[in-house]
């Protein structure tokens, strides 16, 4: 066996030093190259030759194979020393790979650049993930999924050279970050389909009897496990599986039973007396049941509360015995003159504090009395507030006439009364649906014809579109900004074409914005066959007029036979398209020319069979 050598002469013409490393066993000698440094060959000191005629002794009795292994390891140690001597600071060891990209032999800065260049657009591409039997894609930016190339290169350099790994190469794990919470949100829809939601516990009242819903575990995303799986599999796997785990509501079945026994049942066993400096009143068992809540949060944790808003609503007229409601200042018209009615302060029960104190006594069987504070409350709007709005003169008025049935007329008058006196401050937007709320039987409205799905049918609140058109035109001719409106699908001759509006609660609204520096008072008046809306403010425009274009694409009605008790017959009407321009003048000049366009369908001739 040839003895290993630690140094040999450079072959003729060689421009780099080479080094032969001994390998234990029968493997061939591997020659490694040292780069980026001048030649610094460190020769090994050869052992002295034994005296003539004497056999070499085994060191400490070592067998030759063991001695050869030691020598090999010593050679590797020498090689490591050589490489350490020639390695520069912050340099990534040779043959280091990250995600299959070789970044070895470079500075950490160059290695990071090489890694980023090697990955290219892969780091921006959507990632396919599997949750149970469902798949979806995740946008890396959406979940803050990113590779830190600089940190990865730094970690690779920290390890230093390893002679063993120099022979086979070394793979370094990339430094990857991801936001686990954002990842959970991104795949929430898929998780919902793949797993199943937990049943959240709760307690509700049926009359005065509490009813419990007990918790049941569900299956949801393992957030930490999903983040780890995505970090590990990203840029390696075509599809990454995100783990599911059992999810348990935080409030247990035993805790639900304890809430029933300790609070829910005792709470409605007797009323609670509330004392104030202005007198006392009683919170009935029914009012307690309506305002005491055992609603869980999204984790299934129940925290009993008394809802302040529900408590005030449940007490109703009881509070009127000890409260005085504040009265805002209002604007009224008297003989064509704007007058301001002053505001008045009030005295109200602090129901927020009462709700908290009430919860503290509901579990008791005796001592069910709490003291409530009565606080002074100022009006929200004072006379000086209204005076500063500059509401002093009529700026527009619009009237429409009606001759419909009793229900339709009733509804028009009802909504006009509700809107009368509304004040719109500068910059505020008026929403008719938002101002009146649902126009139902409870609010005083009755059945009348409405256009629904292309035909006339009877529904509660029918006829409101006539008031909507009247209000829209008053705002239009006041020069106020149109935020949203939608004309009728069929042309109605009692309305101006194009500049008219329908409405339907809650999906279809009519809105306009006060785009002036002054307040606007909406004044409504009605007769037996007409409704008028007048806007009072300070004039900013000389005039507001309308110019109509011709009717185009006229179509004729068709005859349709309908059945059903809700059918309303019609004579039909033509369809057409038309443009209209709102022209606003100030200082004798046109400052705005706003285009409105609409296409009317031909209204069928409905015959009720």
Notes on the protein architecture:
The structure is a single chain. The protein has about 600 residues and is an alpha+beta fold. Among the domains are: about 20-85, no CATH class; about 270-380, no CATH class; about 390-609, no CATH class. It has 15 helices and 38 strands. A four-stranded antiparallel beta sheet has the order 24-32-31-25. The longest helix is centred in the first third of the chain and has 23 residues, at about 65-85. It comes from Luedemannella helvata. This is VanW family protein. It holds the Pfam family PG_binding_4.
Question: Which overall shape is indicated by the principal axes computed on the Cα atoms?
Answer: extended
Major sheet details: 4 strands, antiparallel
Could you give the distance between the termini? 114 Å
The computed structural class is alpha+beta
Instruction: Count the DSSP helices.
Output: 15
Strand content: 25-35%
Low-confidence stretches: 1-48, 53-62, 65-87
Helix content class: 25-40%
Rg over C-alpha atoms, rounded to the nearest angstrom: 43 Å
Please list the strands of the largest sheet in the order they lie side by side: 24-32-31-25
* Number of strand segments: 38
Mean pLDDT across all amino acids: 85
Pfam families: PG_binding_4 (PF12229), VanW (PF04294)
Domain YoaR-like putative peptidoglycan binding: 263-368
Region (Disordered): 1-24
Protein name: VanW family protein
């Amino acid at each position: 066996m040839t003895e290993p050598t630690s140094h040999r002469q450079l072959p003729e013409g060689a421009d780099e030093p080479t080094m032969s490393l001994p390998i234990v066993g029968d493997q061939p000698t591997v020659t490694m190259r040292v780069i980026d440094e001048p030649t610094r060959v460190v020769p090994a000191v050869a052992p002295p030759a034994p005296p003539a005629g004497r056999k070499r002794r085994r060191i400490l009795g070592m067998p030759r194979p063991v001695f050869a292994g030691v020598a090999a390891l010593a050679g590797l140690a020498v090689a490591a020393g050589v490489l350490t001597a020639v390695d520069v600071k912050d340099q990534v060891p040779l043959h280091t790979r990250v995600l299959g990209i070789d970044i070895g032999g470079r500075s950490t800065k160059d290695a990071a650049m090489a890694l980023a260049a090697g990955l290219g657009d892969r780091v921006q591409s959507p990632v396919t993930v599997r949750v149970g039997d469902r798949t979806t894609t995740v946008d890396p930016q959406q979940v803050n999924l990113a590779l830190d190339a600089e940190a990865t290169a730094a970690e690779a350099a920290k390890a230093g050279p390893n002679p063993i790994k120099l022979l086979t190469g070394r793979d370094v794990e990339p430094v990857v970050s991801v936001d686990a919470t954002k990842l959970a949100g991104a795949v929430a829809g898929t998780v919902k389909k793949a797993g199943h939601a937990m049943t959240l516990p709760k307690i509700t009242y049926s009359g005065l009897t509490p009813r419990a819903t007990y918790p049941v575990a569900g299956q949801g995303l393992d957030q930490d496990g999903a983040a780890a799986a995505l970090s590990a599999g990203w840029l390696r796997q075509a599809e990454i599986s995100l783990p599911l785990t059992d999810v348990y509501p935080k409030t247990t079945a035993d805790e639900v039973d304890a809430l029933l026994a300790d609070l829910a049942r005792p709470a409605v066993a007797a009323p609670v007396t509330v004392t104030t400096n202005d007198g006392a009143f009683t919170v009935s068992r029914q009012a307690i049941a309506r305002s005491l809540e055992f609603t869980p949060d999204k984790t299934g944790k129940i925290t009993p509360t008394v809802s302040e808003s529900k408590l005030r609503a449940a007490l109703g007229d009881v509070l009127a015995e000890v409260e005085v409601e504040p009265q805002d200042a209002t604007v009224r018209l008297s003989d064509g003159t704007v007058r301001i009615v002053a505001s008045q302060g009030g005295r109200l029960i602090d129901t927020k504090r009462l709700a908290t104190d009430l919860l503290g006594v509901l579990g008791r069987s005796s001592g069910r009395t709490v003291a409530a504070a009565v606080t002074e409350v100022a009006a929200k709007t004072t006379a000086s507030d209204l005076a500063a709005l500059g509401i002093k003169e009529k700026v527009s008025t619009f009237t429409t006439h009606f001759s419909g049935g009793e229900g339709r007329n009733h509804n028009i008058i009802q909504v006009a009364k509700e809107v009368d006196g509304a004040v719109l401050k500068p910059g505020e937007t008026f929403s008719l649906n938002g101002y009146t709320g649902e126009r139902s039987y409870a609010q005083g409205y009755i059945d009348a014809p409405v256009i629904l799905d292309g035909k006339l049918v009877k529904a509660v609140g029918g006829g409101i579109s006539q008031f909507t058109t009247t209000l829209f035109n008053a705002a239009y001719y006041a020069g106020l900004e149109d935020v949203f409106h939608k004309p009728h699908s069929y042309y109605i001759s009692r309305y101006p074409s194009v500049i008219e509006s329908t409405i339907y609660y809650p999906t279809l609204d009519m809105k306009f914005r006060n785009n002036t520096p002054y307040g606007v008072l909406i004044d409504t008046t009605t007769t037996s066959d007409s409704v008028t809306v007048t806007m009072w403010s300070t004039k900013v425009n000389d005039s507001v007029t309308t110019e109509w274009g011709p009717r185009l694409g006229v179509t004729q009605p068709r005859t349709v036979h309908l059945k059903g008790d809700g059918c309303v017959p019609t004579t039909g009407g033509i369809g057409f398209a038309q443009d209209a321009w709102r022209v606003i003048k100030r200082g004798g000049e046109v400052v705005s020319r706003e285009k409105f366009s609409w296409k009317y369908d031909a209204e069928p001739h409905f015959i009720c069979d």
